[in-house]
UniProtKB/TrEMBL annotation:
Belongs to the AhpD family. Gene3D superfamilies: AhpD-like (1.20.1290.10). Disulfide bonds join C130-C133. This is Alkyl hydroperoxide reductase AhpD. It is an enzyme of class 1 (oxidoreductase). It comes from Dietzia timorensis. Antioxidant protein with alkyl hydroperoxidase activity. Required for the reduction of the AhpC active site cysteine residues and for the regeneration of the AhpC enzyme activity. One of its GO terms (molecular function) is peroxiredoxin activity. The active site is at C130, C133.
Length: 174
């Protein structure tokens, strides 16, 4: 199971996604851990069993157990945070100072380099459409020393993996 299986399983109308997935898997902007953690976090966030299974299988060969778990933790914790922070934003100023009241310990101690976890949290937040979280994590990433090119590469990973999941879902339904 692998990225190649995903590429080979894409329908003809998704040729651009196939090409993008292939080129992103050879990224030079991100180191191996950043890239494969971003791919795994994005795959988990798509909620597509095929995409997650294929990427997770290959990611195990590129990530330590700690990094593998941290990428999945980023997907899980940001799923919660993206919902709650979007809701606070929608509800307006009256909710701005309301205490979140949710545990988020993994963000402070993810078991991997903080910049990598923040990058993966950005990937998840972009897919989930949370502007607040995307901006907050991007700021932290930049403070940690990553470049805008690295951030954008991770966002391209998020966009492409989401598109691949969509194409696979469409193909399965038809």
């Amino acid at each position: 199971m692998s990225i190649d299986n995903l590429k080979n399983g894409l329908p003809e109308y998704a040729k651009d996604l196939k090409l993008n997935l292939g080129s992103l898997a050879r990224s030079t902007e991100l180191n191996e851990q950043q890239l494969w953690g971003a791919l795994l976090a994005a795959a988990a966030t798509t909620r597509n069993d095929t995409v997650l299974s294929e990427i997770a299988d290959e990611a195990r060969g590129h990530l330590s157990d700690e990094a593998f778990n941290a990428a999945l933790a980023a997907s899980s914790i940001m799923a919660m945070n993206n919902v709650s922070y979007r809701a606070k934003s929608w509800l307006g100023d009256d909710y701005a100072q309301v205490r979140m009241g949710l545990r988020m310990n993994v963000i402070g101690n993810p078991g991997v380099d903080q910049a990598d976890f923040e990058l993966w949290s950005t990937v998840v937040s972009v897919i989930n459409g949370c502007e607040h979280c995307t901006l907050a994590h991007e700021t932290k990433i930049r403070e940690e020393g990553l470049t805008k090119e690295q951030v954008w590469e991770a966002i391209k990973v998020a966009a492409t993996v989401q598109g691949v999941a969509q194409a696979i879902q469409i193909d399965a339904a038809l």
